[in-house]
Amino acid sequence: MRFLVSPRGRAATVTLDAVTVPGWPVVFRGSEAIAAGLVTPGKLRSRAFRRLLPDVYAPASGGPADLTLRSIAAYRWAHDRGVLSGYSAAELLGRSCGPWSHPAEVTVAGEALRSRDEVIVRRDRLHPGEITEVDGIRVTTSMRTAFDLARRLPLVEAVVAVDNLARGRFAPDLLLNFAARYAGARGVKGVPDVLAYADAKSGSPPESRLRMLLVLAGLPRPAVQHTVLDDVRHRAIWLDLAYPEHRLGVEYDGGDHLRPDRVVQDIARHTRLVAAGWRVLRYTAWEIRNETDRIVADVATAVGIDRTTLRPIRVPRTRDASHGSPGRAG
User: Fold this and answer.
1) Most buried residue among 170, 184, 229, 327 by CB atoms closer than 10 A?
2) CA torsion through residues 132, 135, 137, 143, sign
3) What separation in angstroms does the CA of 122 have from each of 90, 131, 173?
């Protein structure tokens, strides 16, 4: 018996008498594992394993079934005939940008699979060049994934997804090529609206949400990943968002900023920015979600704008994010 386990723990293969069981022992089809003699039906029903989807199992000791695990389960459930797409593809591509509880997404071509609570099944056209593999699992490429999310999600979350998938990989405007290729696809007319706000320099999804919060409130568009030169230490400091003419930085503080070593670094960084004549407003994810009015008021005051004069940008109606329909690009 020979075990080959992915270093990421996402997918594994075991070879037993020339029988290959995809995904064993991480996420696998129970019927295949039984046929290979790797597990008995009784053992599979025991507390040692948990059923993720019909005939798809994982060890019970693996922790909560997050979107990555559920996406791999959806791929196994589709008998490897589908391609993970949307938020599921983003997860495996290392560019997570969706809700933890979002259903897995798999795109198939005419297969007799139906969506269920845990899985969105889309019937869509995929060019071979729009498919790649991650640990032996087929997923849509970063560009195709960004195109799909751009045309399906509400504006802010669509921008968040495009920013995250494009960072360091491609220029967002290249998605216009997909819009031209799939001109009749659902939601494609809204892609240019998303690209008007997208910025591949954004460092994280919360940073993108913070930027969109300010812009849609009617504030000037901030610079992204703005560089401030520290002449004393002869190094550069990057600000998440900035209004250089006002020497104002606006930043997102994630959980990693609470680590003791990071706190020390942040104090030194903040001191250097203040010494260079900058002010910095810092916000947490909770504040970005729940205190939007205060954030807008803070920034408006800091840049000398009377908030009553702001003209919020009207956001287009939420585009269809349904499961798609047979025979159409969903």
Assistant:
1) 170
2) negative
3) 16, 15, 25
Helix (H, G, I), strand (E, B) or coil at 2: strand
| 52, 115 contact by CB (below 8 A) | no
Q: Which one-letter DSSP state was computed for residue 79?
A: T
Quick one: fold of 66-200+320-330?
Answer: Beta Polymerase; domain 2 (3.30.460)
Question: Please, what is the angle between helix 142-152 and helix 155-166, to 10°?
Answer: 170
- In three-state secondary structure terms, 65 is coil
Report whether 115 contacts 320 (CB < 8 A): no
Domain with CATH 3.40.960 in the chain: 218-309
* 181 close to 226: Cβ distance less than 8 angstroms: no
> What was the pLDDT predicted at 161?
98
Taking only the tens place, the pLDDT of each residue in 166-220 is 999 999 999 999 999 999 999 999 999 999 999 999 999 999 999 999 999 999 9
The DSSP code for 123 is E
Record the tokens describing residue 54, joined without a space. Answer: 């019909």
Quick one: DSSP state of residue 170? Answer: -
Neighbouring C-beta atoms of residue 107, cutoff 10 Å: 30
Q: Is 191 in contact with 175 (CB distance < 8 Å)?
A: yes
Cα 320 to Cα 87, 146, 260, 302, 313, distances in angstroms:
15, 16, 44, 37, 21
Q: Which of 125, 126, 85 is nearest to 104 (CA)?
A: 85
Residue 18: half-sphere exposure toward Cβ, Cα within 13 Å: 0
Q: Which two tokens stand for residue 130?
A: 């729009």
Q: What is the CATH number of domain 218-309?
A: 3.40.960
Radius of gyration for the chain, computed over Cα atoms and rounded to the nearest angstrom: 23
Query: Residue 321, class by beta-carbon neighbours within 10 Å (0-12 exposed, 13-18 middle, 19+ buried)?
Result: middle
Q: What is the pLDDT of residues 9-68, one digit of tens each?
A: 454 554 443 358 999 999 999 999 999 999 999 999 999 999 999 999 999 987 789 999
